[in-house]
Amino acid sequence: MDKSVTQKTIVIKPGRSMKHYWKDLWNYRELFIFLAWRDILVRYKQTIMGVAWAVIRPVLTMVVFTVIFGNIAKLPSGGVPYPILVFVGMLPWQFFSSSISLSSGSLVSNAQLITKVYFPRLIIPTSGVIVGMIDFFVSFFILVGLMVWYHFVPSWLIITLPFFMLLAFVAALGAGLWFCPLNVRYRDFGYVIPFIVQFGLYVSPVGFSSNIIPVKWRLLYSINPMVGVIDGFRWAILGGENGLYLPGFFLSIVLTLIIFISGIWYFRKSESKFADII
Amino acid sequence: MASAIEIEGLEKRYIIEHNLQRGDISFREEIVNAFKRVGEKIFRPFARHRSNQPQNKEEFWALKNISLKISPGERVGIIGRNGAGKTTLLKILSRITEPTGGRVTIKGRVASLLEVGTGFHGDLTGRENIFLNGAILGMSRAEIKKKFDEIVDFAEVEKFLDTPVKRYSSGMYVRLAFAVAAHLEPEILLVDEVLAVGDLGFQKKCLGKMEGVSKSGRTILFVSHQMGHIATLCSRCLFLQQGKLILDGPTQSVISAYLDSLKDAQFASLRDRKDRQGTGQIRVVDTWIEDESGNRVQHVFSGSRIKFVVKFERMTTGKLSNVLFSLGINSSQGVWTTDFATNFINKNVTINSRDGQAECIIPKLSINYGSYTYNVMVRSGNSGFEIFDFVKDVYAFTVEPGDYYGSGYVTRGQNVLAMDHDWGINEE
Q: Which residue is closest to B27 within chain A, CA to CA?
């Protein structure tokens, strides 16, 4: 431990906790890594069930959506095998939905930590999103397998995928940051989240391509930030056929950023009270 | 020399909302209320805003105007009854909760140990938990790695390092948790009552370790009910009472002032005590000890017949069956001495009227010497064992040696217990 760290001075005053927050967040990066590591470890500890869960859920959903939307409703897929179309949409959606469920409940499930030790609380919901990300990578391997099976070669645009991944991350964390404090304050808020997740699945273009939405409605449709993310994924992996609808895409980005920044603001505002009301 | 900790006019206020359990508000209620307010605005736009909510909020000052300075390397004990604000003070210093007023300046790295094994996860192995817990307590990965073997040695769990801690015995679990905490090396260490668990030998080991830590120039703030521990470890002591700093000075004199205050009947009237748990269906409003002739006493003699009286009131009428009363006796050193409870002797209690008193008769007191306090608990004997009322340290009394054996002999030593016994001599 070097002297510069040990000799730091902390001033505690009402409303003062804000001042060194971002620096603190950096100082506590190891704790962040440990907490994320713990969550992942616990999730995958009973290895068979852990991994199986991350595989079974998306695969079954994919099968159902392919049958309903592709085979029964016969929606267009733009020349791409329907299962792949669905699966590429489901990757970000699954990431988004599991991340917000994990992160919004994370404060309450870590109540014991919050009342006994100090650290920037932002660490906890963020670590929830990281766990969602691991599930995402597991599912990604299924996608690769699916592509091999259908002899489908992704377009070179796939190099832009990290950007859309980041967008999905920001959207999930933004939503999680909003739900976290609400979950602490109102214990029955926990019932709202599964509903949002369920509802979101049907209003987002997971089972179908958003190209089937009439053009005049597409901007309105893009108010759902996940529309931009999912379209982005399809564009990056499946290529030009599923062209991006740019006005809608930018609207999604702007809304995502608004949710994220306001989420941080709201979380920070409620943070100092967590230990007292949790 | 600059202070390690400087506290000026520190205050903390909690708002207690009476009608709501634990301050929970449901989201549904809030939405309904919001619609009601909007509706009212629309239909009666000029009506004065009614503050019609019954005033069920109450302020509670957990800390009031605390000012003090602590120099680097000082070992300071904090004592006081439950609810005096000791833990709140530590929580503010460790930045878990924000103060309502005042200011604290801390120089140096702070680690707080408010609970043993914070963040331990049952499904993770001992090894994993050491790393996790260390990180939570503020150690870096490099630090933990460096001390890993030392921690394992200290905890004596080497064989079980790769076993999930949920399979540990409770003793092993506590030892491991302690061991991690004991190897913290911050400039300032805040410790709350954590030594109360664990077996005696291990407690000693930990105290020794902490003493070693403080010898290397580290500042320690130590909350405990074990006066013995405070006396061993601390040179200076703070006495808090109802959120105020009553006394600040050398440990011995502060401890004896605190013990005196326990003996004083200066307790807040039991009826007004806020630091109680339970639903309040039955409330203990007064309690005392009577001697053989029915006088209320605070000094009793070993071997004498005494009676603990607990006066209670109920909020509701009607028959309330299967009620359990219990008294827990604690010595002033914080040792849990004994319990008296209705269910120990299969006494079935049914209460019909709104108030009454429970009496516990000790035919022959076998405590020989010392200062004691007791806790009262009233709860349901039905499944769930719902607590109606639980208040700690409701009354203090001292025991003096008496004619326990009925032989006229009164012990002169300060031995704690007297026990009936007989002797026989067998000669060849």
A: A186
**For chains A and B, what is the number of CB pairs under 8 angstroms?**
120
Q: Does B25 touch chain A (CB under 8 A)?
A: yes
Do B297 and B189 fall into the same domain?
A: no
Q: Is the model's pTM score more than 0.80?
A: no
Number of domains into which chain B is organized: 2
The whole domain housing B171 covers 60-263
Rounded Cα distance, B275 and B280, in Å: 12
**Minimal CA–CA distance to B173: which of B112, B210, B129?**
B129
Q: Are residues B173 and B299 in the same domain?
A: no
| B99 and B34 Cβ atoms separated by less than 8 Å | no
Q: Is B44 a member of any domain?
A: no
Alpha-carbon distance A30 to A37, whole Å? 10
Q: Are residues B253 and B358 in the same domain?
A: no
Q: Is the CB of residue B356 less than 8 Å from the CB of residue B372?
A: no
User: What is the Cα–Cα distance from B147 to B141, expressed in whole angstroms?
Assistant: 10
Is there a contact between B91 and A275 if contact means CB atoms under 8 Å apart? yes
Please tell me whether residues B257 and B285 are part of one structural domain. no
The 8-class DSSP code of residue B81 comes to S
Q: Do A38 and B121 touch (CB under 8 A)?
A: yes
- Complex confidence, ipTM: 0.80
Q: Which residue has the tokens 């704690």?
A: B416
Token representation of residue B55: 């005033």
| Residue whose pair of structure tokens reads 């959120």 in the numeric block | B243
User: Do A275 and B97 lie within an 8 Å CB cutoff?
Assistant: yes
- Which pLDDT belongs to residue A2? 38
Whether B242 and B282 map to the same domain: the answer is no
Query: For B389-405, what is each residue's pLDDT tens digit?
Result: 999 888 888 888 888 98
Stretch A135-151: mean pLDDT:
89
Cβ-based neighbours of B249, under 8 Å, separated by 6 or more:
B236, B237
pLDDT digits (tens, 9 = 90+) for A58-113: 888 889 989 988 888 888 877 788 888 899 999 999 999 989 988 988 888 888 88
Residue B47 scores a pLDDT above 60: no
Neighbours of B232 (CB within 10 A): 16
